[in-house]
Write a structure and sequence with these properties.
The complex is a heterodimer of chains A (about 170) and B (about 140).
Chain A lengths: L1 H17 L9 H7 L6 E8 L3 H16 L2 E8 L2 E15 L4 E11 L12 E11 L3 E9 L4 H12 L5 E2 L5
Antiparallel strand pairs in A: 1-6, 2-3, 3-4, 4-5, 5-6
Helix pairs in contact in A: 3-4
Chain B lengths: L3 H12 L15 E7 L3 E9 L5 E8 L4 E4 L7 E11 L3 E11 L6 E9 L2 E9 L6 E4 L6
Parallel strand pairs in B: 1-7
Antiparallel strand pairs in B: 1-4, 2-3, 2-5, 5-6, 7-8, 8-9
The chains are: A alpha+beta (about 170), B mainly beta (about 140).
Chain lengths: ~170, ~140
């Protein structure tokens, strides 16, 4: 069933990033370096027709409002109920040349933690914004090719200013 | 596959049963709720917040029309709990909630804009000064 597979995705990503015994990325830079070579890892770069300053300001406003959440998902199947509790933690670091948005997830229940869990939880997504000429911004994000689609959509929408809504994390 | 009880549960919540009694509305409408939602159903629970930030449930309004007028008591804190429900063939029923605290002032009007589109949701709350017509965005976080 689709839902049962969806429940396994966080665990699978953690396992794949861990490289069967290798250390989990402990910070955003390690995550950036690990993702391109990871199975189901994805790096995408897009250009946004909005100023870097506006992009950074929107991330600083929306990320704490929308991503400081706890998601409890329960699947009731023939084998009984399985509950996953995921605590999301966003971090925004805005500098002159780069704005960073990190999304960490700390699984409190229902997922077997693999390797050393960094403070705040596993890194799940890192997005960087860089200023371009003409009030444009280059957006680059690192993360899994699936399983964080709604968060990616939100981060891109915040950057473009198209939709400032919060991601429905029950859809992850 | 959605199970029959899941569909019944969602319908029951939306109908205002299952612990969701209809809100005993006040005749003077001071809150206008505008809802733009696709793929989900939305309800708004109204709670009284006491000085210790304890929420006492008062009732639910089903946001099944684009615009709904609600009468909230003034001079006290209320907690508005917006819940978005969806029933999927593959993932069963899901819900998420967004809370907004509000302390309506006599004579002021309030507007809530509730949106859900492409898996992104938002709740915005504004206070409108009756004299100047100026609108002020309210912080929707509970923050007690």
């Amino acid at each position: 069933m689709k839902k049962n597979i969806a429940f396994l995705i966080p665990f699978l990503i953690a396992l794949l990033l861990a490289g069967c015994g290798t250390q989990q990325p402990q910070n955003a830079e390690e995550f950036r370096q690990a993702i391109p070579g990871a199975f189901m890892g994805k790096v995408e770069t897009v250009e946004i027709n909005r100023s870097f300053r506006d992009v950074a300001a929107t991330w600083q406003k929306r990320a704490p409002e929308c991503l400081n959440v706890t998601v409890r998902s329960t699947d009731t199947g023939s084998a009984g109920a399985h509950t996953v509790v995921a605590v999301y933690k966003p971090t925004v670091i805005a500098g002159k040349e780069r704005a960073e948005l990190h999304v960490q997830v700390d699984y409190k229940a229902g997922v077997l933690n693999v390797g050393t869990v960094p403070p705040g939880g596993y890194y799940r997504l890192v997005a960087d914004a860089y200023p371009l000429e003409g009030s444009r911004t280059r957006l680059q994000w690192y993360g899994p090719s699936r399983g964080m689609d709604v968060v990616v959509k939100a981060i891109k929408s915040w950057a473009s200013g198209e939709n400032l809504g919060c991601p429905d994390l029950t859809k992850q | 596959m959605p199970r029959p009880y899941q569909a019944v549960a969602v319908l029951a919540i939306l109908a205002g049963c299952a612990g969701g009694q209809a809100y005993p509305d006040l005749p003077e409408k001071n809150l206008q709720v505008r809802t733009v939602a696709s793929g989900v159903s939305v309800v708004m629970g109204i709670h009284r917040l006491d000085e210790k930030c304890f929420a006492r449930y008062e009732g639910t309004v089903t946001l099944d029309r684009p615009t709904i007028e609600v009468g909230l008591p003034t001079g006290r804190l209320s907690l508005l709990v917006f819940e978005f429900y969806s029933l999927s063939v593959f993932s069963g029923n899901r819900s998420l909630r967004r809370e907004a605290k509000i302390a309506p002032r006599p004579g002021y009007r309030y507007e809530a804009l509730v949106t859900y589109k492409d898996s992104l949701y938002n709740v915005e709350l504004r206070e409108i000064d009756p004299r100047s017509g100026a609108a002020r965005e309210l912080d929707v976080r509970r923050g007690c």
